[in-house]
Design a protein that fits this description.
By secondary structure, this protein is an all-alpha fold. The protein has 1 helix and no strands.
């Protein structure tokens, strides 16, 4: 839906579309088997580990 397709209520304010609960995630990474990982997955895992180590070093 575009911005012009939203309905307005009786006060004239438009309601914005909300994300349904089933579509929301908890922000955690999904684990996959190593045998299904490709090169991009391995790079993403390496970036995640590097970011986590930077956060740990910053806290201490």
């Amino acid at each position: 839906m575009g911005r012009d397709e939203h309905r307005t209520n009786r006060r004239g304010r438009a309601r914005l579309a909300q994300t349904p609960k089933y579509a929301k995630t908890d922000g955690k990474d999904v684990e996959f088997s190593e045998e299904f990982a490709d090169h991009e997955d391995k790079e993403a895992q390496a970036r995640r580990r590097a970011a986590e180590s930077r956060v740990k070093n910053r806290k201490s």
